[in-house]
Protein: Flavonoid 3'-hydroxylase 1
Organism: Paeonia delavayi var. lutea
Amino acid sequence: MESLTWATYAVAWLATVSLLLLSTHLRRKKLLLPPGPKPWPIIGNLNLIGPLPHRSIHALAQKYGPIMQLQFGSFPVVVGSSVDMAKAILKTHDLIFASRPKTAAGKYTTYNYSDITWSQYGPYWRQARKMCLVELFSAKRLESYEYIRVEELKAILKDMCSSAGKKIVLEDYLSTLSLNVISRMVLGKKYTDETEDSIVTPEEFKKMLDELFLLSGVLNIGDSIPWIDFLDLQGYVKKMKALSKKLDRFLEHVLDEHNDKRNRVKDYVAKDMVDVLLQLADDPDLEVKLERSGVKAFTQDLIAGGTESSAVTVEWAMSEILKKTEVFTEATEELDQVIGRERWVEEKDIPNLPYIEAIVKETMRMHPVAPMLVPRMAREDIQIAGYDIAKGTRVLVNTWTIVRDPKLWDKPDEFCPDRFVGKAMDVKGQDFELLPFGSGRRMCPGYSLGLKVIQASLANLLHGFTWKLAGNVKGEELNMEEIFGLSTPKKFPLEVVVEPRLPLHVYGL
């Protein structure tokens, strides 16, 4: 009798489990997923992603449409490739897609997701965003640092003038400019100048940042197939751990230096962004305490975010202009008319230089620094365009395809700044045809600074020099290939010869 009871229980239990599995299966079958290529076992669709992921995904979007689903190893990835899909993800359902997937780069190079970019949506991130908007990137604070941007730009222009007639690599000057500006604004001094008390040499400082840009943008297999993550097949995690030790040693030194100054002076007034962060960390009223690791993570974000993107955008702009010399002619005519030949362009002049603004917008259209923006993650199940997107799905906004859509842009593959002249479209996240800085809650918080540096740098490079490609290379021969990483820079740096076009006293010579 007892064995019969157990048998009955066993049958009932098996029946219940079977029913549950069947109902789950039936529910799953009812899900309407976005179209996409059939995934392979284990790797999913990773076999379709080449060394330039944005171009691979662009090709797939042409086939499967404005919303498609890919499988990257163990994770579904939904890609939005139209204005409507971008608006749905970044505006209509922004809150649902406000989190980030967890990656090795976020874990090992940003103090376990303690920075602004990779932290998960919640009280900590909301507080970080508020700090950025109210404290770090407020109009008043950025204005207070304008003298730094002016000094560093003039120093670079003077250096370039001293090299007139010789072949120069433009990237070297642009990266030094953005690095010096950001170092002084964030850290309070330049780390590209070697001094006796330097914790790192200028070469080591630049190398660390170059490595950070590279490792932050790699396609790490362990991020897609977690159960083989421990094998570190590509060796990226090992490199990330080694880099994080170097960065931490540097950032500890920076924080110690700042705390020493703050402790020595009564009623110390914050002079740079690290000072501001340390003051915020001391604030007992913060909703979430800002730990020392958080200060270091934010500091690293500010340095990395502010250096690469502006230099890359200006280099692309000059490359496009050298392929199309009539753009240079039109730009310099505007500059001569508005600015004259006896002074440099100031930030306040930019609204009076609509063609310069148009060149910047067209460069950001053709060469978006983040062609798929930073990935987001669905915080709950949702439907978009009639398709089901499950909680935990990774979501990409494919701006590379949007800015090449012939329905939106006439001759989308042609560099044509005139398309923006007289148009109200801007890059501040409200016009979904053009989203170089993203949109919504997770839009780049420092976009206003980036825009100031890019516009002023480009305007003065065009104003101050005549340009030609080094080695008698013709414009149509210029290689315009890119590489993929945290940003999307030129594969081959731009080599040029410049000659001053203003009186020499303007350069400080």
Notes: The beta strands are 67-72, 75-80, 167-169, 376-377, 382-384, 387-389, 394-397, 465-469, 495-500. The two ends are 106 Å apart (CA to CA). The chain has a mean pLDDT of 91. Residues 37-507 form a domain with the Cytochrome p450 fold (CATH 1.10.630.10).
